[in-house]
Specification:
Helix 3 runs antiparallel to helix 4. This protein is mainly α. 73% of the residues lie in helices and 0% in strands. It is flat.
Length: 98
């Protein structure tokens, strides 16, 4: 058992790629403040545009459910991000007056 713990196993190409890709996905990305402030509006705008794309397509098309799902997800994310950024903390004295 001691010899197995001392010998390092070399990783295959697939394992190396998985290791580096995992680090890339979980890496934090820093956006400029201007883009960070526009993020909820981008989500909401994308959701509205996708919703109107589903409305203006006259015939049934295979991509309609994907447009509708994308619009709902974008609107939902935009509203969540906007509400979390504009949320005001409730002061303890406000809780006593309620």
């Amino acid at each position: 058992m001691d010899s197995a713990a001392r010998d390092a196993i070399s990783l295959s190409d697939t394992q190396q790629l998985t290791r580096t890709t995992g680090n890339l996905i979980t890496k934090k990305i820093w956006l400029p403040k201007f883009l960070y402030d526009l993020l909820p509006y981008f989500y909401i705008g994308s959701g509205v545009a996708a919703f109107f794309a589903t409305v203006y397509i006259s015939a049934w098309f295979w991509v309609l459910p994907q447009y509708l799902l994308f619009s709902v997800v974008c609107l939902h994310l935009g509203i969540i991000v906007y509400r979390r950024r504009t949320r005001r903390d409730i002061a303890p004295e406000d809780l006593d007056n309620s």
